Every structure is written in structure tokens, then in C-alpha cells.
Amino acid sequence: MSTTEPVPAAEVIDGVLQLTIATSAAGTSMDFDLINAGTAALRALDAGVGAVLLTGAGANFCAGGNVRHFAAAEDRGAYLYEKATELHDFMRALAASPVPVVAAVQGWAAGAGMSLVCAADIAIGGPSTKLRPAYPGIGLSPDGGMSWSLPRIVGASRAKEILLTDAVIDAEEAVRIGLLSRTVADEDVRAESLRVAHTFVTGPRATYTGMKKLLAQSPTATLDQQLDSERAGIAAAANSRTGREGVDAFVAKRKPDYLGLS
């Protein structure tokens, strides 16, 4: 591992797959040993995992790619092609995750770090959290899916402004435009993100998977197609173990027990 800290790349704790994507080494730039380990863990996801947590181990969530490594490469284009391929394998695995993805966004999320925030289902930051595309500053175009995800979050016009002007977005603005779900005290970002991830572990996992599928297809579906998908989904859920437990618990006025259901 290229980091200077003994940080686990990917570990499942109490049903949450915790993926570290950057450490304090090299200014909390993205660590591709960790990214590649995360890709492998996401591809091997099993029924014991109910949520994914993305986190940085240093002062920042992720400050983007290591620009010094870019500069030192003999063929910079070939090097960036390789790194983008590795990052995009991770992004594809993350997008295919059937369980909710939570990002604990402390400090800066810049460049590809911001792309990861855009890819999370829920992103929790603190008052000191800041986001920045950071690509124009080094004369590069985006990677990590930012040119796809950002317009879908903030709208096409605002995405153009953010990317072209290399805007620095503070926590309050990030919540307002939907890049962050909400903020908590800086010192509570990781704990609160982990708490939220744990709620998905004990919740109706099949329901979350169904919701994610519907949300993923909605940008390209017509209303008519989406209504058909929702009808099919809710009917199938009603006869599933999860749906039966949820309805039966509601009628019995008890808390549903979803653990072990699929």
C-alpha cells in the first residue's frame, strides 16, 4: 500500500462496508491502492452488507488526484488514462451497488473527490466542508463521472458555471443545491455518517434496492414507463418477505424486524 498509515482499504463492520479513499499521505490525495481494493470489495458484495460508507482518513475527504504523480509520469496522457480507468471501475462498481452509499465528507472534496460525493446516495458534511472541481486549475477536464452526475444534481446551467469557473462551494451552498444532503458539527461528520449507514443495515434492504433501481432509471424513462415500473415494483414488494413483514408489523403496531429478510 502506498499510504503511510495502516488504514484498512475495505472492511465490513456491523454490516457496513467501509471504504477509505484517501489518507493524510500526499495531502489527502486519492490513493489508488485503496480505490482498487474498494472496487474489488464492491464487486464481491454479499448479503451481509447493508450499506457502503465512503470516508477519508485524513483532514479531508479527498483532495483529488496526486498532481505530483501526474507531473512525474513519463507519458502523462497514458498515466492519466490508466488512473481514470481504475477510478471509473470503482465508480461503476459503486453505481451498481444494490445498497445505499453514504459519504462522510469532512474538509475538502476536490477533483475526483467531488466526483465521489456526487456519486453517493447520501453525503453528510460539516460547516468547514468545501467542494471544488479543481480541474481548470491544472488544465484538465473532469473524470469520475462529474460531467454526468453534476448536471443531474444541480441542473445543466449551474453545472456549467461550477465546472467552468472552478467554483469553491461551501457547506451551506452545497446543501442548498443538493451536493450535500445536510451538515452536522465537523467533529461529528464521520460518526453521523456511520450512524446513517447502520440504519440501512437494519432497515428493509430489498426496499432500498428497489428504490435505487427506480431512481437510477428515472432520468431516461418517460412518466408512463416510470409509472409502470413503480406499479410492478410495489406489487412484487407486497408479496416479498420484506413487504409482508412491514405491512404485518404496521397492522400489529410493532416495530418491523427486517434483519435476515431479502
Order of helices and strands: EEHEHHEEHEEHHEHEHHHH
Largest sheet: 6 strands, mixed
Which word captures the global form? globular
First and last CA, distance: 36 Å
- Count of domain modules: 2
CATH class of the largest domain: Alpha Beta
Protein name: Enoyl-CoA hydratase/isomerase family protein
Family: Belongs to the enoyl-CoA hydratase/isomerase family.
InterPro entries: ClpP/crotonase-like_dom_sf, Enoyl-CoA_hydra/iso, Enoyl-CoA_hydra_C
Keywords:
single chain, 262 residues, alpha/beta, 2-enoyl-CoA Hydratase, Chain A, domain 1, 3-stranded mixed sheet
Describe this structure in words.
The strands form two sheets. The protein has a six-stranded mixed β-sheet, sandwiched between helices. It is α/β, with parallel strands linked by helices and 262 residues long. It is built from eleven helices and nine strands. The longest helix has 20 residues. The relative contact order is 0.11. The protein has two domains: 193 residues, Alpha-Beta Complex (2-enoyl-CoA Hydratase, Chain A, domain 1), CATH 3.90.226.10; 48 residues. The radius of gyration is 19 Å and the shape is globular. Belongs to the enoyl-CoA hydratase/isomerase family. This is Enoyl-CoA hydratase/isomerase family protein. Pfam families: ECH_1.
Quick summary:
It comes from Nocardia halotolerans. This protein is 48% helix and 14% strand.
